[in-house]
Design goal:
7-stranded parallel β-sheet, 7 helices, alpha/beta, Rossmann fold, about 15% strand
Length: about 230
């Protein structure tokens, strides 16, 4: 049995990702600032991803329980609001969690995966990191663009050690995030998506599992879009 760490493990997406790994026999460490309930092969862990030492300690703990094979950086903050009203305090917090927190996770996982003979890092990016967006704090798209670039850096660094690093870039998904938008905003966004529907958390989890599987061992540095074809209208 191997272990996997999923940051943001108590959120909508995090829970779907944790369940996909648990169903495949992994020992799952679901890390979050407000962790959920324990279950068979599911260990909730309190974690603030802005704390680099805590991320490192979690990687070491998971590896002691079962060889660490996968680290998923899923912790993130999403804040809506007019771009021109965005303030620096919110900017700093979003960058700290979404980008710096992902850096801390990558930095904690890489040396252990390297020592274990290889493994996978999967980061959660966003379509906002590729095309920007309106009605969302500008730090969100900026942080996710940074996650995409960070993914490529760790892909290059980990390649010679058998460690892949990829990212999944979801579009708008069913879940608590959609509650931040009005009905008219949702309708407008749906019209820009050829599939005319929201994505499902399970669809993102499936993409993460693909990138964390040995069958995808020759895939690294990829930013996998899971967005219903939103680019096709560009």
């Amino acid at each position: 049995m191997h272990s996997v760490v999923v940051t943001g493990g108590a959120g909508d997406m995090g829970q779907a990702i944790c369940e996909s790994f648990r169903a495949d026999g992994y020992l799952v460490f679901a890390a979050d600032v407000k962790p959920g309930k324990p279950d068979e092969r599911l260990i909730p862990v309190p974690l603030d991803v802005t704390d680099r030492a805590a991320c490192k300690a979690l990687a070491e703990r998971a590896n002691r329980e079962a060889p660490l094979k996968v680290w998923v950086n899923g912790a993130g903050i999403f804040v809506t609001g007019p771009v021109e009203e965005a303030d620096s305090a919110v900017w700093d917090r979003i960058i700290a969690v979404n980008l710096t927190g992902t850096f801390h996770g990558c930095a904690a996982a890489l040396p252990i995966l390297k020592a274990n003979g290889g493994g996978h890092i999967v980061n959660i990016g966003s379509v906002s990191g590729q095309v920007g967006g309106v009605g969302v704090n500008p730090a969100y798209g900026a942080s996710k663009a940074g996650v995409h670039a960070l993914t490529k850096t760790y892909a290059v660094e980990g390649a010679r050690f058998g460690v892949t690093c990829n990212a999944v870039a979801p579009g708008l998904l069913q879940g608590s995030m959609t509650g931040a938008f009005s009905a008219s905003q949702m309708e407008k966004m749906m019209k820009t998506t050829p599939m005319r529907r929201l994505g499902k958390m399970e669809e993102v989890a499936s993409a993460v599992r693909f990138l964390a599987d040995r069958q995808a061992g020759y895939v690294t540095g990829a930013i996998l879009p899971v967005n219903g074809g939103v680019y096709l209208y560009g």
